[in-house]
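Posting this for the archive.
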Amino acid sequence: MGSPDGGYSSSNDGAQPAQSPPHKPQPPPPSDYTETTYLRFLASNAEAGSIIGKGGSTISDFQSRSNARIQLSRNYEYFPGTSDRIIMVSGTIDEVLDAVELILTKLMNEFYAEDGEEVEPKSKVRLIVPNGSCGGIIGKGGSMIKSFIEDSQANIKISPQDNSYIGLNDRLVTVAGTLQQQVQATNLILSRLSEDLYYIQSIGPPFPYAAPYSVPNYGPNGAGKKFQNTKEDISNSVTLGVADEHIGIVVGRSGRNITEISQISGARIKISERGDFIPGTSDRKVTITGSQRAINVAEAMIMHKVASASSPPPASTPER
């Protein structure tokens, strides 16, 4: 299922025409959970499209039923090192958990359940947790995460800190299992995180990173590295190497794609003439000039265009 070009959020941002849902009366929550909390996790573009629904109908329904706010990063804003978008759910802890259960249920039914399957389907959800809050989930000697695994029967793994990306201070907590196991484990993890003042104060936009990241791979053989020099750095310019066969998708018919990228990002984009390659490669030069943010956005959009022209990767199988 496709997904819209822009990010998506609650009607409070003006992103949806739907009226604000009526307040759902609830008994006062425990004093520990009166503060707004949040949870971020990853979703593929197809999963993001499913969550948004036609004309935003699904996300509006989920927000109305849970009273939580659901936001998504834009379709070219991926979590560093992945091709997955970020979903952020915020509200009271009960509202967040209600919304997450609605989302995970839909994804499980749409992407993992099979007709006639005798065993309950399994999948995984990758939660984004600040590095500074991971210690609370792990516990002394791993005691906390072991108790979460035992109580939920889910498989829970925390990725090592990745220093490959400047400004990335988050880690992925992968929760694998049946729907009920995922929901229970997420409940335990979020309850723990909501007691962490650092975690609560770190709430921000769905995409808090300095720039849209992805692994540069613009050509069939992995060609497409970023080439910079001191002069280009000073003038806020960067040159990308893009395989000659993929230049067409970057430019688009009558220049439509490159014009769109330039307008959205605010960057100036120049492509070298045919036959003018980066030395030692068969990659054309794509030079992007503008503010650092404009360059980052344009680069991510170009990467997205090229990726869409390449063969899709084999379907991943859930961890068991």
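The first strand starts at residue 37 and ends at 43. The radius of gyration is 21 Å.
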